[in-house]
Amino acid sequence: MTEQTKLDQFTNQLAAVATLVPRDHKKVGKIAQAIYTRQVVTIVGVKTTTSRFLPVSHEGYSNETYVDKVELWGKTRAEFIARKLKGVERRAHMALFREKVETYLRNNGGGQQGWQTFFEEKFGKACTIPDSLCVACWNCSLFGGMEAGKGATFSRIRYFDTFSVEDAAECIQSDDSPEGMAIGNTVGEDLSVERSEASFHRYEYVKAETRFPFITIIESPTLLDVAGYLAAVKLADQHGYGKYSANHGKFKTEFLAVSTGYPLFSVLDLLTWLENGELTNPKEKLHFETAVNNPVTLFGEEIDEIRSKLDGQFRAYMEALTKQ
Hints:
The protein is of the alpha+beta class and 324 residues long.
């Protein structure tokens, strides 16, 4: 009998990819299955800014924009709220999903059929975020959604607010910094009058090389969910988070651990460990638990093995859809 690899042990605790195939409801049509396996996967990592970053979730003041901040454990820190993380990563996941669909169709006799036609056939409509969700596709199954008159699917992915490891005085460019706030595009400028400072948009930003630890939990996960999430985060890093993401908000993400258990620590613990340089060996600090069985936790190159399973798992998903 062949000995199971650690990735095999990890995969054996996950749901089958077929659970992502929508069911046909006699009244509302295609809708994502309700998946309740009582299993979870926790992803832990650190996002490091590689450009200016504007985490903004509040109204600005006139022609000025200020970074979200919070007082936490003796420091003023930049705050990166869960809703903003989820929004960007959901869109990146959908972009990945559409690309994978069209690639699969081209390679399997589907010609140049676009994702829209495929979505209409398999999910009832061409799902778009956020105003026209289908509540039947892989993206809606994972991130949740609602359609009037049809129903809703609960989100199976859980995000947590996170905060900068570095103090605001160190990591935020503001009026208190020697260089002052940055100057952006002009707003409401009347070219017939002499230009004044009031025509400039002034904004704070988080500097490059600022670290934000994060924890994400996927409930009732499939291997496709986990591999797809890891790939979507990398896409989101290049797309950009926060305000003015076309030019700003770029990140580098390091995944520290992926586990089939719940974390015995919080984002606040990660802040402390990173401040003190105590996460050089994640295995020493990142511990998990489960209600049943023992958690399987992957580190380093083992996490890369999960990402390598994306193509095969997506192919299995598409084959399951075509059997409907």
